[in-house]
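Hi team,

Filling in the usual template for the complex we talked about on Friday. All components are listed, including any nucleic acid strands or ligand strings, so the model treats them as one assembly.

SUBMITTER: L.P.
PURPOSE: interface mapping
COMPONENTS: two
RESIDUES: 446
SEQUENCES:
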Amino acid sequence: MTGRRLGGLAAILVALALPSGAQAMTVFGASSLRDALPGLDKSPNYSFGASNTLRLQIEHGAGADLFVSADAEQPRTLFAEGRCDQPVTVATNVLALLVPKDNPAGITSVYSLRRGGLRLAVGAAGVPVGDYTRALLRRLRMTSALTANTVSMEPNVASVATKVAFASADAGFTYITDARAAGDRVRAIALPRWAQPPVRYQACVVRRAGADGTAATAYLRRLTSGAGRSVLKRFGFGLPPRS
Amino acid sequence: MQAMTRRGLARAGGAGLLAVGGWSSLASAAVPKATPRPDDDGFLLLLVAAAKVLSDLYGGASPVLFSAGERRRLAGLERTKRTAIRYATAALASDAPQPGDLASSLPAVDIRDRARYLGLAERLERLTCGVGVAAVPATEDPNTRLLLARLLAADAQALAAVRTLAGLPANTGLLTPVALDDAGTVLDRYLVAPTAPSERVPA
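RESULT (copied from the run log):
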């Protein structure tokens, strides 16, 4: 066997011997983080969606290494099931009422939804933004807004923002960060501060056979570091106190 | 405000009279366990936020503006507000605001002299009482209604105390209900969410 052939064989053997962790790690992230997480690091494979859907996928063995959820419930469920490490809070957010830029329905505050007959986009029940929206309306004693208006139940927050941006809905509840992401196609109406449900993003390193825990832990450490917090802040997220 | 039924009006009147009468102090009352229905949460949350603002206001009373005796009375009011927060928070259970969710933000201009300070305190106490008067008839869970009535009684006593400090008659007459929407708009001026992102969207 020539040295060249030996070298080739060695390269193949090395490639076969490399652990799966040598591939880019996979981050499952809430839809509302679709701009911020790649802003921190473009190298991982990202899968964005509703946090409850991502949690279900992880429970069914999807190949996630890190899970960043728009609420605390989904990671805590996985933690209780032994499918991820102890979750940590990485960011905060607030809800906003989005209306199309020209606001054809003349919505001036959340209380405008009481008049009924509007097209309203909200997250479906179980989707974090949908649950936060319901909590907010309950606190405002305005749950009737979900029956007095024509309501479309969206699978994730990005769908709500898109519906409003293209004026397929007169208004929709999203996070304030989605209002920023939608740019000048929408206007955000602030919601009563006292009634805002606490929106906390929690992340956890997924435990499964073949998971790249080392890379996921490093990513999470970076996300909670000064650099990570700066990126989150740049994309409009709030920050939890440093632990 | 939404239309009230006759029963609701009777309850509101009762609540107002209860408040004017100045019921037993909140701290000494044994309150049965409240289990608020979903729509009851709003009243409790708003009252927690208002009590937080008022407790910080009373706790920050300056010795320049008030005598030692007056500050002792204000400290007593602060304790009453803290008790109210404790009761309402217990009733809200997992829906209660966590430490750091909300903080008070009292504009310096509103507390720079005694008259402004007491004026703000009276406005906020009156607002709190108004919410309580609206809340009692509208609350579904009986024990939550009882808790709200007791909070209202304590708030009415606090209002009377503030008015006395301001040199006004303690008696406020029958308190009128204040809608949650209106109360929230006023209260939001004195609240900040320390860990939340900015609500402003760049143009």
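MY TAKE: The two ends of chain A are 59 Å apart (CA to CA). The first strand of chain A starts at residue 26 and ends at 30.

Thanks, L.
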